[in-house]
Amino acid sequence: MKVADLMTRSVVSLSPDMTLAQAAERLAEHGISGAPVVDGSGRVVGLLSESDVLRHLSDISEEDLGGLRRAHPMRPLVLLSALGEKSRGKWAGVYRRLRQSRVVDAMTKEVVTARPTDDLERVAALMLDKDINRVPVLEGDRLVGIVSRADFTRLVAKGAEKAPRL
Question: What pTM value is reported for the model?
Answer without folding.
Answer: 0.77
